[in-house]
């Protein structure tokens, strides 16, 4: 069987036996190293998605693989019915990185969001004194926080919500970037505001510079928790440990995931102070796999990589190079570019092509990227990417836009 046949056979197998909840590009990845992946036919591609920022530190990062391998040989799962020797050191290191006291260890991003919502409601009833069953939480239009029924209950994306009701009550959505609208939605039963510091799935939407500081000031004044969903924006991507650092704000709770697992295992967490996370008592929340020794060992190694600041610096420096390269394309098929560190949203002129078409042509030229919301494409290469790789990506995008204009 030739490699090409093998590739289409594998696509067919997925098509037949995996529910069609994704629409992947026609590339079957077999191996990866750093910022590059290789398909089953041996073709190499620059990975400009990095698994939606779950692979910030590169495929097969040697430090993270070594931490995983060492822990694989010791023990991988104990459940929280017993202590394990990895969870405490991981939690202490992660809390220190975030400048907070403690963590709730979970697995996926959606679980971290659910955990943050639960802790906010419990804090509202037990500390703030909200009347039973009355708590509300404010979110932003255009949000993406995951796929559970409670989380999609406050999504305004029809594709994500249609036919999945009835939904969880207790959420209010206001325009993103509008602090006055957010303040107007707060009442005595508001326990939290949940926001992405930059809206990733919406297309790398960056709010006005004074937005997050205003939200911090408003939530503090109304005794409302500020929960920052940094699952995609955090852990180096934007040139800082957290995008909230760039905005010089400190939320009450950080929600982390994706890169926290180093691209090896699902690891997520809620990070906050004892006066908030301490409201939860034994039996009130949990996860069989949350805080498992393999996840904790990998998560601690991830925190170790971030503790030096070198990845944050690299994302900042390389991000400026990427933004400069992409900026030259405005007017040649690109309408706008928004970027923060090594994270860019590129609005393609819809008259020229869809984002999907651009991504398909990029893949033919050895660059993997993902479209979002019709005509926007998102670039988020692993932070280990080399400067010349970024130049390669920009050159391929330039060539694709040229091809499309000539059509
Ligand atoms: C990906 C993502 C999530 C959900 O994470 P999963 O691991 O896919 O459940 C939540 N919030 C944001 C901002 C995300 O980007």
Number of strands: 15
Characterize the main sheet: 7 strands, mixed
CATH topology of one domain: Aspartate Aminotransferase, domain 2
CATH uppermost class of one domain: Alpha Beta
Mean pLDDT: 97
**Backbone shape:** globular
Share of helix, binned: 25-40%
Order of helices and strands: HEEEHHHEHEHHEHEHEHEEHHHEEHEEEH
Q: What oligomeric state is this? A: single chain
Q: What class, by secondary structure content?
A: alpha/beta
Strand content: 15-25%
Would you give an account of this structure?
The protein is of the alpha/beta class and 407 residues long. It has a domain at 62-307: Type I PLP-dependent aspartate aminotransferase-like (Major domain) (Aspartate Aminotransferase, domain 2), CATH 3.40.640. Helix content is 39%, strand content 16%. It has 15 helices and 15 strands. The protein has a seven-stranded mixed sheet with strand order 4-10-9-8-7-5-6, sandwiched between helices. Strand 8, helix 10 (243-246) and strand 9 form a beta-alpha-beta unit. Helix 13 (310-327) packs parallel to helix 15 (387-406). The longest helix has 20 residues, at 109-128. It is globular. 49% of the residues are buried. The model has no long low-confidence stretch (mean pLDDT 97). The structure holds pyridoxal-5'-phosphate. The site of pyridoxal-5'-phosphate has 15 residues, from helix 5.
Write a short abstract of this structure.
With 407 residues, the protein is α/β, with parallel strands linked by helices.
């Amino acid at each position: 069987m030739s490699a090409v046949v093998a590739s289409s056979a594998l696509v067919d197998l997925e098509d037949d036996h995996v529910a069609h909840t994704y629409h992947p590009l026609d590339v079957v990845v077999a191996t990866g190293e750093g910022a590059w992946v290789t398909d089953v036919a041996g073709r190499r591609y620059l990975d400009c998605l990095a698994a939606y920022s779950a692979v910030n530190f590169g495929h097969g990062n040697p430090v993270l693989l070594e931490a995983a391998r060492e822990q694989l040989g010791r023990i991988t799962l104990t459940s929280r019915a017993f202590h394990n020797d990895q969870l405490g050191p991981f939690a202490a290191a992660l809390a220190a990185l975030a400048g907070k006291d403690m963590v709730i260890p979970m697995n996926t991003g959606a679980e971290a969001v659910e955990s943050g919502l639960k802790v906010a409601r419990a804090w509202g009833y037990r500390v703030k004194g909200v009347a039973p069953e009355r708590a509300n939480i404010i979110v932003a239009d255009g949000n993406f926080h995951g796929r559970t029924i409670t989380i999609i209950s406050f999504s305004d994306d029809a594709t994500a919500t249609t036919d999945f009701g009835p939904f969880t009550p207790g959420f209010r959505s206001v325009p993103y970037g509008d602090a006055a609208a957010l303040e107007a939605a707060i009442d005595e039963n508001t326990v939290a505001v949940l926001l992405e510091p930059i809206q990733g799935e919406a297309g790398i939407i960056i709010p006005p510079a004074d937005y997050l500081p205003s939200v911090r000031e408003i939530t503090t004044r109304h005794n409302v928790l500020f929960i920052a969903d940094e699952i995609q924006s955090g852990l180096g991507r934007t040139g800082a440990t957290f995008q909230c650092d760039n905005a010089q704000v400190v939320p009450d709770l950080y929600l982390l995931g994706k890169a926290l697992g180093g691209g090896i295992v699902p690891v997520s967490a809620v990070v906050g102070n004892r006066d908030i996370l301490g409201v939860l008592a034994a039996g009130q929340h949990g996860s069989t796999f949350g805080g498992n020794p393999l996840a904790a060992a990998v998560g601690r190694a991830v925190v170790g990589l971030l503790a030096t600041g070198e990845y944050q610096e690299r994302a900042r420096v390389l991000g400026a190079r990427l933004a400069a390269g992409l900026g030259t394309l405005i007017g040649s098929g690109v309408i706008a570019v928004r970027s923060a560190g090594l994270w860019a949203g590129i609005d393609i002129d819809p008259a020229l092509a869809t984002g999907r078409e651009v991504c398909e042509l990029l893949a033919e030229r050895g660059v993997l990227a993902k479209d979002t919301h019709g005509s926007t494409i998102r670039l988020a290469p692993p932070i280990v990417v080399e400067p010349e790789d970024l130049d390669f990506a920009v050159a391929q995008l330039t060539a694709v836009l040229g091809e499309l204009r000539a059509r």
